[in-house]
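CORE FACILITY INTAKE
Project code: CF-77B
Contact: R.S. (postdoc)
Sample description: multi-component assembly, two entities in total
Requested service: structural model of the whole complex
Turnaround: standard
Below are the sequence entries exactly as provided by the requester. Do not edit them.
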Amino acid sequence: MLDTLIDIVAGTFMIVGCLMSLAAGIGMLRFPDLLSRLHAATKPQVLGLFLLLAALGLELRSWAVLPVLVLAWLLQLLTAPVSAHMVGRAGYRTRHLKRETLVADELAAVVEAAEQREEHEIGRDRPRDRTDFID
Amino acid sequence: MSREQRLADAKDESGQRQRSTLRQEIPLLVGMMLVWGALWQDFAIGNLVFGLLISLLLVRVFRLPPIILSGRFNIWRAVVFIGAFLRDVTRASFEVMYLAVFRGPRTTSAVITVTLRTESDLLVTFVGHVLTLVPGSYVVEVDRRSSTLYLHVLNVNDQAGVEKARASVLLIEERLIRMMGTAEELAALNAEKTEPSKEHGAPS
């Protein structure tokens, strides 16, 4: 009885976990620009992997694998935000975004102020050795 | 390391950094030792001691900037925080799924500024990590000197949505300060709660 119950819970976890990966794929296809696609690419796996690992833990029923499963999830938690940040930052700086999908951009004013300060300090004629004008 | 030292470190652009003492590294060493045990699936004393020796060697060879803990940790608040985190992640995952399927290309988003109350590197990193793990927002840029995060938030449709997103980030920070912030940060937070007229988080 208990075994069947655990099997049902584990099976549900696995299906929902896989649905999260499906959602990531759909999001990659359907969201309008790089910055919003990143949400789909990095985030649903946090819950998806958690559910799959939990299902694995429930099915294996061994205390020895539990620390490994926790470790796998924690490493994912540590690395996913870093990659999202790096890609998002590079995407914003190289202007791989659609302005019309942003209802507010509070970073733009900060970037503009920094650019003006830089131009003021270095002078206008200096060639820009930057790659952030690839529109 | 004191707050002054930290600020001096943040402003120092020569590349030299404060080094951590063995005492500051204890949490890191214990964590690495447990990772070693988990990888071998063996928590016997001998294996753990060997893992500790390897951890010591690693932190000696590959120097890290010091992580400054506040010296405070509230276990009950940690449980509250983890519960709220799992709830947020679950709800937001389904929201992003719904958006992907039903709104797709018409989804709008925003880049917003949030100035955090804390001045600790660890807390700023932690807030950034947690809000990035909750689907719907991630950190685009960080200003370390003013503890300011610039976030990309999905599904923001108007100015009210921007304020709502800002408030949710400050709520994450509040939970983290209650869990592991310094005593001063906690006192400031409580003072702010009893005197709600003071605005926080808006761009200056």
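Facility notes:
- The mean pLDDT of chain B is 82.
- Chain B has two domains: 3-61, 75-194.
Invoice: internal transfer
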